[in-house]
């Protein structure tokens, strides 16, 4: 389904975010559906700025501002923070970002949020990216997190699922009724999910940068996610499968990113038994291919 990315704005809206006519994409999905990981990919490949309403609320509280104290007080009393407060934080963040393309993650949480966003900002989303994932799979992912949240227990997780189904799913259904939803099968591996996400953004004429440092960093990120690798300079990270010890790098901005690298890589299994060792000076794409080829031999 192709979506028109033109952003309609209310004539009455006076905020500068509306005047800039930004492209806003709402990113929705249940807890554990993988929204955060996919948002990181989208930011890297398509130049969007990523905002989480929850993070903005927590940041405002941490700032100690008058508004933050009010939000904290309401939360402590078990009250729901008014939608207008959250929307104004999002609007301020967009205005100050210097960008005109935004991913808003986990928002709107309900129909009231949706209506408030349109009323306060005068902005309608270009489309909604909905990560559809079975509850059993989301539960499995959350429980298998290496560093789970304090509330990552069965009872709390299922309450979060229930809230999503009762409050957020109707938002998805509303936008689906007006042809603004791109549904992604999020039960698949991360790389396959992102291929579907890329197709959505490519279909709206956003250009992926197919070369250079962005692609190299993206490939490394994919390797990290797929084989739980860590890339460190002269060191080993807990649980890593590969330990690179990077030497000099020509035309390089980062230790591991560059057009040509002098490097020494020790390929090791999770029990840290050395598999092979090599020293070479080769172009980055070949280095990645070499790493990927050896990584395929690492048992799950």
A few lines on this structure:
This protein is of the alpha/beta class.
Provide keyphrases for this structure:
5-stranded parallel β-sheet, disordered N terminus, 300 residues, 11 helices, single chain, alpha/beta
Q: Could you report the average pLDDT, rounded to the nearest whole number?
A: 71
Broad structural category: alpha/beta
* The first-level CATH class name of the largest domain: Alpha Beta
Question: What is the CA–CA distance across the termini?
Answer: 37 Å
The CATH topology of the largest domain turns out to be Rossmann fold
Helix % is 40-55%
Give, in order, the helices and strands: HEHEHHHEHEHHEHHEEEH
Tell me the name of the CATH homologous superfamily of the largest domain: P-loop containing nucleotide triphosphate hydrolases
Q: In angstroms, what is the radius of gyration?
A: 22 Å
> How is the largest sheet built, in terms of strand order?
2-3-1-4-5
* Main sheet overview: 5 strands, parallel
Give the overall shape, derived from the CA principal axes.
Answer: globular
Number of helices: 11
Q: Outline the low-pLDDT stretches.
A: 1-18, 206-300
Count of spatially separate domains? 2
- Measured by DSSP, the beta-strand proportion falls in 15-25%
Q: Please count the beta strands (DSSP E, at least 2 residues each).
A: 8
CATH 2nd-level architecture of the largest domain: 3-Layer(aba) Sandwich
Subcellular location: Cytoplasm; Nucleus
Family: Belongs to the adenylate kinase family. UMP-CMP kinase subfamily.
GO cellular component, one term: cytoplasm
InterPro entries: Adenylat/UMP-CMP_kin (IPR000850), Adenylat_kinase_CS (IPR033690), P-loop_NTPase (IPR027417), UMP_CMP_kinase (IPR006266)
